[in-house]
Model the fold of this input.
Amino acid sequence: LISNNIQMILKVKKKKYEDEYKRDLKIFEKYKNKKNVVLLTRELPIYSIVCSTLGSISVPFSSTALIAEKANKPSIYYDPLENVLKDDSYSCGIKTIFGNKELSSFIGNLK
Done:
């Protein structure tokens, strides 16, 4: 995204487990000083955020992908570790991609 001059929005979601929250903090730490990256807290309403975007790249199987689809935004799940199946029933019909080539293609089509 950043190399395509597209602003990236990262939002922490409410976590049930402390280790999930710590993982998100590590991701935020990695991107906090990057140009074209906006970090948001979990208190902000996701629907209004999604409506202002070009599309959504979500972690399987977060509700953000479904919200983006409802808002008529291009939406995918991205799983670089291939932890889920491509045709997993939990995807609710939203495409799951795994590799950098597929991700780059999706991003290229956002412009």
Q: What stands out?
A: Strands lie at 8-11, 37-40, 56-58, 75-78, 96-97. DSSP finds four helices and five strands in the chain.
